[in-house]
Design a protein that fits this description.
There is one protein chain. This protein is largely without helices or strands and about 375 residues long. It has a 4-stranded mixed β-sheet. Strands 1-4-10 form a 3-stranded antiparallel β-sheet, with helices on one face. A 3-stranded mixed β-sheet has the order 2-3-6, with helices on both faces. The longest helix has 11 residues. It is globular. The protein starts with about 30 loop residues before the first helix and ends with a strand.
């Protein structure tokens, strides 16, 4: 079987460029301190909110009655029985509470999330990031959920500005992206078979409906989440859920090293020898409950990489350390490369470093392969 080799830092391949330019809207250090003082609740961070000139983002929600633990599901599960994914809906979502958390990886020995075997600079330094309440899907988007999207939309693009973060301007669907979607359902179904042996999509519903949907590029992921009443999570939101907020976990489950009970990686998911990659290594969503995160999200480590909203900037965390961030989002690409961030590791590779809650990297948004998928977020305000 072919073993895919990726140019991922920390895996022994490739180099990162020198310092890039940034697309960050900064408040100045004094304003950041005020924002942090006003917005620290349960989860955690500093805030840097990109906005268009004249834009007035909404304030973060104030302390008070917490939102419900879950919100109504989107249309992608409307025709299902509601028990397809481990006895519950594949569309289950879980509240991640607002607050400030230590984003990035600590560089000091003794920290709960200290890791210096490779010391990837793009994971450091640790810095506070502040978020409002949000909901994150418990499971990665399944083939069955994506099938509902294809059948309902016929590959039509979302409306302009759909799928936006409610407090960050410039994050909704751009009509210039319409051309990035296939022209018709037949073309879409064809491109979803990007890797014939390992693509999870099937022309007709069958045994693979609860497998995670792969072979989706960033545009398909954005369009799906917008149609389903949600949006792509920001990179900060994804990391908050994976690190357990202020618990600052090294991995979603804690500090214990990865093993085959917690994460699906290294082509061992079906019990075969490492590197013996077979279609059976792609497991139904939620197959590794021992690897669940603090709030109950599954497969945040291993299974599939997951697209998030942000553009990839290797030195984004160093810039955030200087200026701080609230609802941190990179809304413009760096000049050297136009990549979108993906997080979480995958089923195919020896993903020890990649499974860390802080590991981050990117690919061009048109990338489609058998190791990348989707998880949607939903706003609580």
């Amino acid at each position: 079987m072919r073993l895919l080799t990726l140019d991922l830092p920390g895996s022994g391949h490739g180099q990162l460029p020198a310092r890039p330019c940034y697309a960050l809207h900064t408040f100045g250090r004094g304003a950041v301190v005020l924002a942090l003082a006003a917005c620290t609740f349960a989860c955690g961070g500093l805030v840097d909110r990109d906005r268009e000139p004249g834009g007035t983002p909404e304030a973060l929600p104030t302390a008070g009655e917490p939102p419900p633990s879950r919100v109504p599901e989107g249309p992608s599960c409307a025709a299902m029985n509601g028990d397809e994914c481990n006895g519950e809906s594949c569309c289950a979502n879980i509240l991640v509470p607002s607050g400030t958390f230590p984003r990035g990886r600590c560089e000091t020995a003794g920290c709960s999330d200290y890791w210096c075997d490779d010391c990837n600079s793009f994971e450091t330094p640790e810095h506070p990031a502040t978020l409002g309440h949000f909901y994150l899907d418990k499971y990665e988007v399944t083939v069955g959920r994506f099938r509902a999207f294809v059948e309902a939309t016929g590959a039509s693009p979302p409306a302009a500005r759909a799928g936006a973060h409610p407090r960050v301007d410039g994050t909704g669907w751009d009509s210039a992206w319409d051309a990035e979607l296939p022209a018709d359902p037949a073309t879409l179904e064809s491109v979803l078979r990007c890797e014939p042996e390992f693509a999870t999509w099937t022309e007709q519903p069958g045994a693979q409906e609860t497998l995670p949907m792969n072979c989706v590029n960033w545009y398909y992921a954005f369009a799906f989440c917008a149609w389903d009443g949600g949006r792509l999570p920001t990179e900060a939101e994804w990391e908050c859920a994976a690190a357990g907020g202020e618990e600052n976990r090294l991995y979603p489950w804690g500090s214990s090293p990865p093993d085959d009970t917690r994460a699906c990686d290294t082509c061992e998911c079906d019990g075969s020898a490492p590197g013996d990659c077979l279609p059976g290594d792609i497991l139904p969503v939620g197959s590794k409950p021992a690897g669940s995160g603090r709030w109950g999200h599954v497969d945040l480590a291993g299974s599939l990489w997951e697209w998030v909203l942000d553009w990839y900037h290797p030195d984004a965390y160093r810039e955030a350390e200087r200026e701080g961030c609230v609802d941190c989002v990179q809304v413009a690409p760096e000049p050297q490369r136009e990549w979108r961030v993906h997080r979480g590791g995958d089923w195919r590779h020896d993903s020890g470093p990649f499974l860390r809650a802080t590991y981050r990297y990117g690919w061009p948004p048109a990338t489609r392969n058998e190791i990348i998928g989707i998880r949607c977020a939903r706003s609580a305000d």
